[in-house]
User: What shape does this take?
Amino acid sequence: MMKKTLLIIGLLISLTMSSAYAQQYALIDMEYILERIPAYESANKQLESLSAEWQKKVDAEVEIVNALYKKYQADLALLAGTEKTKRENEIVAKENAIQELRNQYFGPQGELFKQQEALIKPIQDNIYEAVKEIATSRGYTVVVDRASATSIIFASPGIDISDQVLSRLGY
Assistant: This one.
């Protein structure tokens, strides 16, 4: 009875280990793939242009506030209590408006985020679908992005399917 139990345990262990070794892994390099997709480069340039335009607007508002503050500092000795408070409130209101403008453009739900979603997400979705098709057809259990996986020290170039993904996407 003891020999039978040990034999069964041994068989279970060997089956478990063989199934673990049967898993197939592949790598992609998302940066490599994205660099070779012209639509991604175009989307990035468009986002950079919008970002620069919006930053100029924010910077212009900051300059206005700085000028108000300098004028306030220069006039401080001459200002009465109510005028002083009025100017301080005006400066604070402008600073709050600048923060709102920054959030409108660059915040978590801002225009830049929305534009990224509109321009880049479809490209990423296409890449994901291509990776999924290749992984399913070739029996890969796991596909890891080498560009974002900082703990990968070495990986055989033979398991990198980045070129296959580009080919599947038509590049």
